[in-house]
Amino acid sequence: MTPKSRQPEHLSHQASRGSGFGPGQPSRTSIVVAALRAYGAREPDPSVRNPDWLAERLLGPAQLQLITEHPIGGALQEDYEKGRQNREVAGMSNLLLIRTRFIDDHLQAALENGATQVVVLGAGFDTRAYRYADRLKGKKVFEVDYQSTQQIKKQRLEEALGSIPSHVQFAEIDFKRDTLRDVLRAAGYTPVEKTFFIWEGVSMYLSEQSVRETLRTIANYSAPGSSLVMDFASQAMLELLEKFPHIPQHKYTTAWGEPWTFGVPDRRERKFFLECGLQLRETLSFFRRDAAKRYLTRADGTMIGSVRGGSPRGQYWTVIRLIWMFLTRRSDWYSVAELVVP
Predict the structure, then answer these.
(1) How many domains are contained in the chain?
(2) Model confidence at 176, in pLDDT bands (50, 70, 90)?
(3) Could you tell me which of 125, 36, 117 has the C-alpha nearest to residue 80?
(4) Which CATH number is 203's domain given?
């Protein structure tokens, strides 16, 4: 595991970045992601509805006030179909639909295959411990995150549910002092039990060293057959964002002091994860047709839309250059994957 002096980075990017984060306040990106799930849960067609029915109940006025400049903040205040006319809202909520359902599917499969523990790293407003409460009875769920985020989440959960389920253990981490291994041990995590790890919306905000160290901890401190689902950017995506910093989905996080900083080497994903002690079992690019076919297809066979949330406005040649790079560069750009402890 990383030396204690370097611990601030590796679990939750909200710990040390951005004007949007402070004492008693989660990162703005974590609020945006929850808001996008909440918005997608309003979709009338259940075949393309985001399954996170609880997300909206965890977002109070104080949280939504922090993201007023993001279009999802306005979309939550208006008619669903009207909100989808905004390409940023439609594209990003579609992306979150893919990500949420992919992780949900693998969580259910892991429980069916004998996992007795679930660890959510940088949990933020993740709701799986509560949406799947019935299936998680008799099992343990560890939500690992910064204290201020957990305080707000506990308050919102108690208001929404009345109480916090007994199978959930909040594992607070002091990013300047603790290691993931020590925090999990103190929380009651059992490394010999088969475990399902979720690391969603975090790795792209970290350094490569921090990502590798977290992956190695999972590989070395969990039972064989344990699995991890995580999303990750590619190096090409990082290069694209550097060349085109005004892409709508990117400009907000950058302005909030929460830019993407790490991408897995293109066409070397399997090697990268193997070096960290994990086997890549499945990867799904958000921008490939199979992701859309799998998760964005309505019951009648039509598509709800794409994950592309709009191009830089009023910059014709910039848009052409962006499309050209996207079409000619061999990359998966941004993906979600299942990894297994051998």
Answers:
(1) 1
(2) low
(3) 36
(4) 3.40.50.150
